[in-house]
Each structure stands twice: as structure tokens, then as C-alpha cells.
Amino acid sequence: MLKLVRYIRPHLFSCLAVLLFVSVQVVCTLELPNQMADIVNVGIIQRGVEGNMQEDPVVAQAVADAITEATASETGTTLTAAQRTYFLHKGSLMLAITLIAGTAAISAGFFASRVSAAIARDLRRDIFAKVESFSLIEFDRFSTASLIIRSTNDIQQVQQMTFFLLRLATMAPLTGVGAIFMALRTNVSLTWILGVVLPILFVIIGVLIYYAMPLFRSIQGKTDRLNLVAREGLTGVRVIRAFNRQDTQQRRFEEVNDDLTDTTVKVNRMMVTMTPIMQLILQFTTIAIIWFGAHLIADLSMQLGDMMAFLQYAMQILFSVVMLSMIFVMYPRASVSAERINDVLEVEPVIEDPVSPVDTAGTTPEVEFRDVAFAFPGSAEPVLRDITFTAKAGEVTAIIGSTGSGKSTILNLIERLYDVTAGTVLVHGIDVQQLSQHRLHELIAYAPQQATLFSGTIAENVRFGKEDATDDEVEQALDIAQATAFVATQSDGIDSPVSQGGANFSGGQKQRIAIARAIVRRPGIYLFDDSFSALDLKTDAKLREALVPELAGSVALIVAQRISTIADADAILVLDGGRIVGHGTHHELLACCKVYQEIAASQLTPEELAEGGDDG
Hints:
Blueprint: H1 12-43, H2 49-55, H3 60-72, H4 81-132, H5 136-141, H6 144-186, H7 191-235, H8 237-242, H9 246-298, H10 304-345, E1 366-374, E2 384-392, E3 396-401, H11 407-414, E4 422-427, E5 430-431, H12 437-442, E6 444-447, E7 456-457, H13 458-462, H14 471-480, H15 484-488, E8 497-498, H16 507-519, E9 525-529, H17 537-547, E10 555-559, H18 563-566, E11 571-576, E12 579-584, H19 586-592, H20 594-603, H21 606-615
Parallel strand pairs: 3-10, 3-11, 6-9, 9-10
Antiparallel strand pairs: 1-2, 1-4, 4-5, 7-8, 11-12
């Protein structure tokens, strides 16, 4: 929690306002029992009047008149005019004090809510900004489910704790210390009761914190696990139903759900047990004060009003301890949440911008790999070895290979989502590590295999590639991507809604919208990561034909599994085991590359293979 103090600094004025209003509220609350004691003591004329005359000169004359009139009264049961004046004076004063205390409490709550909400807002903003700066290495460290919980549930815990700290952590000590002073001022003889009760309360609270802290830590981790399983169940519902594994997924969810429930029940059991114990202690304290106070009153050592005031001060002291115990109970969970938030905020991304980034103005589009090697963090074997090639402007460079051969990793290195282990990746003739990430990504348009669409409209998803694209540009990009036909069937055309994740479109439709998003950008470098895989062969051929004029003057790298998609490429890289084992055109590779021949044999007919070989 202490590491998040920096988020309070911009709100120091509001924090000081909370302190001021809480102080006013405490002073008023401490004064009310004293005023009540005066009313009771004056009401019982036979005792304490002299003391009140000494303590309250303003109404001394009214009290003296009350004594005279009460003495002259035959029954002594009727309030005199002086008593009425005194009670009205004190009652009005108590009412005014109560109104001030209420106004101060409302004001303190307002400013405390404002500060805690602002801190939560700033934390969400900074976590989102930090996550946006992560490379894929950091995303491998934190699961998506965990990042969501840290951005929502954990921040909510910190927000609640901040509110209670500003209110209770200020009010409880001030009220406790002030009530102890007022209790001693009222009567010293009964303070031994507090000396017995307070240590018992502190021991109970200490035991609770000792056993609750580990449970709160485990609750957050188990909440992450529950969110992960639930998220997998929702996003993978089609696969689950296709394989009739609903029962298996239900059992997985019930296991983590029961585990979290058991831990939560243990914590709640502690809280439920503590509440009646606290109430029992408060009731015994009340009985003890009344019992021993009554004896002091009988011995004329104490006034009835003073006993009532002492009882209220004792309750304020005990409630202060209870309020502090609430903070101590909430603090462990909030502390765990704060640690988890700090884990994200304190991560230093492995990939950072250079101190003095280089500009690419006026340079020709080009991608070059020079002796590149790459291994994932913690991996013993590299994914890529000795990768050297050049993709030039106006050419289409295709990459093909078996699953796990490193095809997509090459594109990730170009975008600098990972940094190379050895060698150099150059874009426009400049090492990508010398470019700012913002500038590098401005040069690139990327279309992934798993097309990601955002909730909104079709046009808004296409404009994700170019924010200021006109409707004509959007429609042209959709036309090139062979999406015009199915977009026209939608109720509102390009303004038709897109569900979260594009759930209302097929895989091929989502891929074409994603390709249109890349086309509308008009970049110097196009990266297509197997983004034609969901298209039928006819649509694939039409799309590639329409792309030809768009790719003129730009670099295009296409990762594909289908020979038909890349057969017309200017250069094809064949990967196997993380190495380039073939480099040439389709016909050249059919003639000399064994790995390419095996891939082609699995996809093409003997006649197509013969035609390719003859042409070569």
C-alpha cells in the first residue's frame, strides 16, 4: 500500500479537507455527552447544581433561579421557567452541534469518496498504459485473466481501503484519544474498566489478523484461477460443445469455485465469530459501568449525568477500537491487491524505445534480416537460427513451413514484439531497435490469422487501420478485400454493428475485414500472417489479384500454409526447424527444395506438380 502513496499526492487538498471535517465531526461528537451530562445534572436539582453553576457561568443565574423556584414548589415535579430556559438553551446547543457534526461527516465522506475514486481512476489508467507498452514477453508472464482481475477487483479493493483509511483511520484515533481524555475528565474512578476491556479487544483483533492474512492472499490467487476457467469456458464454448465436454468444463469450474468458496467461508466465519464477541464485550462493558457507577452515585461520589457521559465516552473508545479492527481486517486483502497492482506497474518492459530514435523519412521500404537468431526467454533451444533474407519494395515475399518452424515469429520480430537474440532486423535500412516503436508501427500494416474485431461498426473496425479514412477509402479497402458483397447484405452496410470479437461474422468474413483494415492504412510494409486461411480458393485468388496494384512500391510478407496462396510470390522462404532451407520462386523450389516438394505433394495434384516443374 505504501508504494501507492504517490497516487495520493495530487489530491492532498482533498485529503486535508477530509482531515479537517473529520476533526470537526470528532470534536462535536465528543462534546455531545458533556452537554447531555449537564442537562441531566441540572434536571436532578438536588445534585450537581453547584458544579454546573461553576462550569457554565452563562446559565448560572438561570440555574440559581431554578433552585429557588423548585424549593418553593409544593410538588417539585413541575418544570420551572428557569429550567425550561436552561433545557431549551442546552437542547438548541446540542441540536446545533449535531447539525455541524452531520454536515462535517457528509463533507468528509464526499471528499474521501472523491479521492478514492480518483486514485482508482488513475490506477486503471496507468495499468492500461503499462500493459499497452508490454512486449509479448510480459504478456507471457501475466495471464489475460490475471490482468483483468488486477485492473478491476484489485483496484476496487484498494479504492475501498483508501476510502476507509481517509475516514476511519483519521476518525478512530482522534475519537479514541479524545474520548479517553473526556472520560478521565468526567470521572477517574471507572477508567479501570477500560484498562481491562481494551487489552482483550486488541488480543482478539491481533489473532484475527494473524489468521486472516494468508487467507486473503490465497483468495486473490484463487479469484484469478476462477476468472481464467470461466473465460476459457466462455471463449471456447463452441469447442466444448463440439466435443461434448460440457460436464468436464463444469467440473473444472466447480472445483475452482468450491476452492474459492471454502476459503471465503473461512474468512467470513472469522468475521462472523468476531462480531458477536465484540458485541458481548461492549454489553459487559456497559453493564460494568452502570453497576459500578450506580455505587458511586449512591456514595455521592459521582453524578448521574457524569455516569451517562462516561458510558458514552467508553462506547466511543470501544467503537474506535472496533473501527480500527475493521481497517486491520480489510488491510491484508487490500495490501495483497496493492502488491499485485504494483507487480504490473513496476514491470520494466524488455523492449523500450531508444534514447535518440532514428527517423525513416525519405528511405525506400525494405525489410532485411541479417544472421538473425531468436529464442524465447527460458527456452534452451532457439526458435530461429541464421535467418538472412531481404524483402524489397514492389515484391511479395512469402514464408511457408511446417507448424512451429518460426514463420509467425519472423513477423513478430519485424514488429519488434520480441527482440532478436542475435543478428539484426532492418526496416527501411534501419535497425528496428533504433526506431521508436510508434514510428515502426506507423510503417507497418498487420493482418493476423485470428482476426480480432472490436465492438462497434464495420467502418469503425476498418478505420482502426486509419482513423481519418473517408467512407470511400473504407469501401475501396473492403472491395479489394472481397468483402463488399457480404457487407452489402448487412442492414446498414459499412455502418452495420459488429459484436464483441466479431461473433456475428464467420471466420472468413472477419479475416476480410481485418485485411481491409490493413489495406486502408496504405503502409510501406504489409504483413499477412496466414490471414487468407479461412478464405475459399476462389475468394483467395480474387483477393490476391486485387492486391497486386495496392502492393506496388510496398514490401509484402505473406505467411501461408497453402501453396496456392503463395505460388505467384516473387520470393518464397521455406522454413524447417527454424532455418531457411529453401529460397526462390515456386518453380525453382519445386525443382530443388525437398521440404517444399513434400509440402507441394501434400496439396497439389500430380498434374499441377508436373506443370510447375515443367515451367521451372
